[in-house]
Structure formats: C-alpha cells, structure tokens
C-alpha cells in the first residue's frame, strides 16, 4: 500500500485510517503546485486529477477519492471497526457522514483556500460552514464519535476538517460538543502519530 499525500491536506484522513488499521504502508509527499512527487516523478502520470489523496493498493490499483479510499482501507482491517460491515444500515450511515463531510465541509472550505475567491464572498462561505458545524455539534450530543462509541474513518475525515477550521480561525468554542470531540480525536495515539509524521515531511 502506498499513500501520496501533502501535509495537512485531506490526505491526512486516509493516513490516519492506515495507522488506526495497523497497516505497514509507504508514503510519498507531493508538491501540489508543481505536480511532482518527492522522488521527482510526474504526479499527473500517477493521478491525472493531480490531487491528493492518491492511494495505490498492494495489487497496483489506484484509488483517488478520499471517501472511497478510507472505506477500502477499513475493509482491509475488519477487526478494527473502522467501518461497519458492508450491507448493514450502519455502513450506510457511515457513507452518509462521508458524503456530508465531503460535500458540505470539505468543498465548503475551497473558497477560503483559493486566492482568487472574491473577498466579499468569503464571509458567506464561512457562514455556510458555521451552519454545518452547528448541525454536526447537535448530532454529536451524547456520542463519543459520529457513529456512537467507536472511532470510524468518518471521524478521521471530520477531524481533518476541524484542523482546517482551526487554521482558518474559526472559534471552535462556539460548538462545545464539537470542540470536545475534536480534542478527543486529536488525543488518539495513532492520530498523533500521523500528525507527527506529516510534520516531519
């Protein structure tokens, strides 16, 4: 298994999943502006989309979308409870969360990261994200994690979105339950390992 990543990007989500699953895997850093890997390879030859995460299975298959990648990883480690069993209603709730995170949170941050976004649109983008975080905060009431008592790959993905919120100066104290959840996930040993590995580059 090999993960192409960029520090702090959404590739942190499958990186966390790989560590939580106890896998042995390779990582290669990607310069997303130059579209070149750390070893000097043309990244577009690996993933024509030019984006991370990009994941290569042991069979040489390439997966390029985060929600698909993390479910693949989880299914290779069934004893970890990183994802409910395929076909169960709980698995569809996991997919529901992954879809919400990717469409409402992940894409919601895009205008804030793009230098070409008009300044007068950024407050609108922030307000939309705040509405989504308010909803997530309510869903986490009396829960340890998104699906209940067990950490899943959806939690790893939401965690990345919360690191972005912190970076973009959102006041997470506005959402006490979500803020406590963020600290809980961040304290997980494997999450700390992933953060430390990416900090080293």
Which labels suit this protein?
201 residues, alpha+beta, Glutaredoxin, single chain, globular, 5 strands
Kindly describe this structure.
The protein has helices spanning 12-20, 43-46, 66-75, 89-113, 122-139, 153-167, 176-186, 189-200; strands spanning 2-5, 26-31, 36-37, 54-56, 62-63. The chain contains eight helices and five strands. The longest helix has 25 residues, at 89-113. With 201 residues, the chain is an alpha+beta fold. It folds into two domains: 2-81 and 190-200, Glutaredoxin (3-Layer(aba) Sandwich); 89-188, Glutathione S-transferase Yfyf (Class Pi), Chain A, domain 2 (Up-down Bundle), CATH 1.20.1050.10. The chain has a five-stranded mixed sheet with strand order 3-2-1-4-5. The relative contact order is 0.14.
- The average pLDDT score comes to 97
Low-pLDDT regions? none
- Walk across the major sheet and give the strand order: 3-2-1-4-5
Oligomer: single chain
Give the termini distance in whole angstroms: 19 Å
Rg value: 17 Å
> Can you write the helix and strand succession as a string?
EHEEHEEHHHHHH
Task: Count helical runs.
Answer: 8
Provide the CATH top-level class of the largest domain: Mainly Alpha
Helix percent reads 40-55%
Structural class estimated from helices and strands? alpha+beta
CATH domain topology of the largest domain: Glutathione S-transferase Yfyf (Class Pi), Chain A, domain 2
Principal-axis shape equals globular
Range of strand content: 5-15%
| Count of the separate structural domains | 2
Number of strands: 5
Task: Give the name of the CATH architecture of the largest domain.
Answer: Up-down Bundle
């Amino acid at each position: 298994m090999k993960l192409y990543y960029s520090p702090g990007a959404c590739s942190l989500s499958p990186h966390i999943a790989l560590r939580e699953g106890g896998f042995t895997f390779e990582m290669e850093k990607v310069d997303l502006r130059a579209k070149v890997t750390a070893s000097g390879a043309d990244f577009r030859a690996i993933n024509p989309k030019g984006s991370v995460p990009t994941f290569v299975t042991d069979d040489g298959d390439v997966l390029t979308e985060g929600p698909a990648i993390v479910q693949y990883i989880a299914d290779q480690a069934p004893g970890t409870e990183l994802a409910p069993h395929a076909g169960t209603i709980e698995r569809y709730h996991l997919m529901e969360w992954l879809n919400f995170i990717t469409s409402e949170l992940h894409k919601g941050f895009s205008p804030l990261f793009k230098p070409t976004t008009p300044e007068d649109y950024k407050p609108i983008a922030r307000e939309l994200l705040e509405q989504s975080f308010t909803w997530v905060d309510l869903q986490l009431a009396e829960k340890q994690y998104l699906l209940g008592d067990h950490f899943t790959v959806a939690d790893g993905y939401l965690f990345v979105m919360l690191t972005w919120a912190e970076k973009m100066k959102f006041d997470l104290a506005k959402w006490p339950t979500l803020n406590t959840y963020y600290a809980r996930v961040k304290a997980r040993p494997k999450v700390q390992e992933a953060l430390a590995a990416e900090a080293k580059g």
